[in-house]
Write a structure and sequence with these properties.
The protein is an alpha/beta fold. The chain folds into two domains: 5-222, Spore Coat Polysaccharide Biosynthesis Protein SpsA, Chain A (Alpha-Beta Complex), CATH 3.90.550; 227-350, no CATH class. The chain has helices spanning 18-26, 46-56, 72-81, 101-111, 136-140, 150-156, 172-175, 188-199, 224-227, 233-264, 268-289, 293-304, 313-324, 332-350; strands at 5-11, 34-39, 61-65, 87-91, 96-97, 115-125, 131-135, 146-148, 169-171, 201-213. Strands 1, 2, 3, 4, 5, 6, 7, 8, 9 and 10 form a ten-stranded mixed beta sheet that branches. Helix 6 (150-156) packs antiparallel against helix 8 and helix 12 packs antiparallel against helix 13.
């Protein structure tokens, strides 16, 4: 039985690398049946390039041009809502796929009917496709390989994501339950990973099937880790000012996830675990919002009992400086200390 493969790609001001990404898809050993590209009101030559490809491959490439910029999550949503394939692969605009990517992922979904989502490791490269020195999974010390029961993987990624969107291939029957994206969803790949693992099993390919380009224009990337190396104090202060908003959106996301799990799972242990993580993020938001020192101290003691919920150690340090004063973290001394600790850790991991 030949199952149809669709590519869902989202673009925005990607003129510099978009052709390389498309060519790597066209050169796959297993050809896709359709490529749906949603452009989010680009102001450069991206749309022109896409329309030229559509003219060259009218039966393969469909370009959706959005009049208003909606952000990368909603842009991916538009692409996903317009694909028709049985298996759907997500694509960014600035990477390069190895030729066997679609074939390997297709084979796994075809042979494993209980698997709803397959994903892989990535090779971290610079904008010229030179290797940075490690893979995504090695950088983060993730140990993933083979068939994983959905409920086990769901628990594994509750604290932080392990799935990068541009490596995903997902069944249409699974993603139909996960789109349109709810407004509280900030990262589409994290939501798809959580939702798919709740509704099916997953498969991790311990091979770098994508050359994951790291550059200054990434809308997402290998994470704060690499960007910290060149982070300036002014950039740090901008991030700091956005932090409360980020915590607010995180709180809303986990509140939504809690409601979703209650609707789609009968596993009481799992429901309770999601509730605890949701309450953890709510407490962090309250810590950053409170103007009263005694309230912050009370919240801080509560967070001490939930240290295993923190995705990284530096988040613990951030929170406990907030207990006493937000001014501590705005100081250049704090920035210098944290930068040295972070960069020392990064340099060791990139070797």
């Amino acid at each position: 039985m030949n199952l149809k493969i669709s590519i869902a790609m989202a673009t925005y001001n990607g003129e510099k690398f978009i052709s390389e990404q498309i060519e790597s898809i066209l050169n796959q050993t297993l050809k896709p049946d359709e490529i749906v590209i949603s452009d989010d009101a680009s102001t450069d030559q991206t749309l022109k390039i896409l329309l030229e490809y559509q003219k060259q491959y009218p039966n393969l490439i469909k370009v959706i041009s959005n009049k208003n910029n909606a952000g990368f999550v909603k842009n991916f949503e538009r692409a996903l809502l317009n694909v028709t394939g049985d298996f759907i692969a997500l694509s960014d605009q600035d990477d390069v796929w190895v030729p066997e990517k679609l074939q390997e992922e297709y084979n796994i979904l075809e042979k494993n009917p209980n698997v709803g989502l397959v994903f892989s490791d990535l090779e971290l490269v610079d904008e010229h496709l030179n290797k940075i020195g490690t893979s995504m999974w090695k950088l983060h010390k993730w140990q993933l390989d083979g068939y994983i029961k959905g409920v086990d993987f769901f628990e594994n990624i509750l604290r932080s994501n392990r799935v990068t969107g541009c490596t995903i291939m997902i069944r249409k029957s699974v993603i139909a339950n996960l789109i349109p994206f709810y407004n509280r969803i900030n990262l589409h790949d994290y939501w798809l990973a959580l939702g798919a693992s709740l509704l099916s099993d997953v498969f991790a390919i311990d091979r770098q099937l994508v050359l994951y380009r790291q550059h200054s224009s990434n809308q997402t990337g290998a994470g704060i880790k690499i960007k910290w190396i060149t982070l300036t104090y002014d950039q740090y202060m901008i991030n700091l000012q956005k932090e409360k908003d980020t915590l607010y959106r995180t709180d809303l996301f986990y509140e939504f996830l809690f409601e979703f799990v209650k609707q789609h799972s009968k596993n009481e242990f799992l429901i309770l675990k999601v509730k605890k993580i949701y309450k953890f993020h709510r407490a962090r938001l309250e810590l950053y919002s409170s103007q009263h020192i005694f309230t912050r101290i009370t919240i801080g003691f509560g967070l001490l009992l939930r240290l295993n919920f923190y995705p990284e150690k530096l988040s613990v340090l951030k929170d406990f400086t907030m207990v006493f004063s937000s001014k501590i973290r705005a100081s250049k001394l704090y920035f210098c200390i944290v930068s040295k600790l972070k960069n020392r850790s990064i340099q060791g991991e990139l070797k």
